[in-house]
Amino acid sequence: MSNPYRSISQRVLLITTFFVVSWGLIIGRLFFIQVINAKKYQSKCNVQANTKKPVQPMRGTFYDRDGKVLTIDMVSYSIAAHPYLISNKANLAHSLAIDLNGDYEKYLTALQDKKTFVWLERNITGERFQNYDKYEKLPGLSIEKKITRYYPLGEIMGQVLGFTNIDNRGACGLELALENHLSGKPGWITVQKDGWGRYFVRPDLPSKAAIDGNDIILTIDQEYQSILFEELTKAYQTTKSEKALGLIINPNNGEILAMANLPSFDPNRFGEYPQAFMRNSVISDIFEPGSTFKVVTATAALERKVLRPDRQIDCSQGFVQVANRIIRDHERYNVLTFAEVIKNSSNVGTIKVAQAVGKEQVFNFARKYGFGMRTDIQFPGEENGILHPLKKWSDLTLAQVAIGQGVSVTALQVACAYSAIANGGILLKPQLVKMIKTKSGIPIFEASPIFIRRVASPETMATLRELLRLTVASGTGRRADISGLAIAGKTGTAQKVINGTYSQTDYVASFVGFFPVNHPKLLCIVVLDNPKGAVHTGGSSAAPVVREIFKRIVNESDELFLDEEEAPLPAPVYTAKHDNKATEPARLYPSQMEVVLSTANRVSLMPDLTGKTLRQALAILQMHGIENVVIEGTGLVIWQSPDPNTPVGIGTNCRIRLKSLGKQVD
User: Fold this and answer.
1) Which CATH architecture has domain 600-666?
2) Reported pTM
């Protein structure tokens, strides 16, 4: 007979052994986890509970040269909730309604929803959500912060600035080109999630501060930019051109003061425009320059002393045959001086000058001016232009290039080339960025003029400036002239190539001008692509646009003529000497008179005072020994007696009349 007590004891022992072994295993396992492998499991726990939340930096701001804001970063917030994690829903709804000036019932209904995730507000402005810090760490709320780029000038600066994409990164224009400077470096904070899924920010956990992007000060002048854009818009609409583009630059340091294109686009609504509108045509569109390219041949002729401005040239009644092609002038000229060839933009005369200069020199000076190569401006999409290698040049190529055919340029290249003429012969690198600085104001880059090469001597450029002044005063560019301003410049009218041949109906009209001629401060180029109607030439369609731009700038910027520096020296005094050189090329008529420097009898020629301030005019007259001066009016010189280039000497009486441009009627 079995013992019941023994059976019970065995069962108790068995159960006790089971629990002891089980607890031993549990304790051993806990010891293994919490002591031996504590670091490993702590790491796994941190991975599950701790999350790195990115902290986006503030993007750098663009400013114009005077510190006016060109971009604004607008902060918006989107507020979401996890209703099951919020204990007092009514209090939260009431608080949000007060702080956001929102709808209490709307918030409460959303918070009482059975869903695990609901939106309370989407894309509310920072001004409306000023108590962001109050809700940032509140359990159950999820707040997304979004930064949107805003461009106050809209279309006016569209192609220059470009825009940022949905991730606030540069997509085109300077926003793309300078992305590395503007974007900054993101940071992060560690947030911890508890067992209920609620997030907490703990200052003792690792974090990394975001580094904000750098601010960028451009060389752009907001006032000049607006003027350029407005005048281009008028021309674009009036002439019904396919495109209109322009540039204003300081020829003395290469700083771009304004750059605009039509048609343009609003970077605040970039999705509504074709991608083609976002192209900066000033640097990315190439075109045949036409007569604006004639300064290359003129520079080569003057610098190599092939001829002087008064040398006569047979223009063959307005046509010349080169190879199997006949090239004509817009008028039937017979004999013109070299100065008149430039003034009247004679194709035949320019070709004959180029033939006298030779292919190599014309090519070399085209290269010296920077044609056929990028300017290396810090802007995406710049084109090289086209200038064929010298070894491929024929006699016909020389003739075509001399008059701006068979070569392609950008508007920026033309502006840089004419800047070299304006500043006395130095080709400068164009610049758009004046300074880069941190958000705290520490400069990390400051621009200075970048010298590329000397194109020609100051004497050659001074002569060329006078020829370009004649072009505006009484030649093809006279519609750019302003009484009281000594503007110099050159027109260009180029036939467009359609299906491999030069069109008789489609043209590119351009004008490039600068002022004042003796001490240039501003240079402007305007290009109209295929203007419609009778006014398709550069002189009739583009030149008036530059005139209006200069007129508006002068009326708003009196400091352009309040120069405290010494007035520029007048051009060298010339007298005439009879000359008959038998060594002149057969294509050129020998001049009856050759100009040479003279100091005989202390006689000089009356300087041109047009466009000078009273202080400058009196300084120049004094240098010529003229002290008897009668002054009429105030402002800039618009009339003088004796006339320019009239022989004068000590004791000559002079009368000058001045007028304020602000009261001028053109």
Assistant:
1) 2-Layer Sandwich (3.30)
2) 0.76
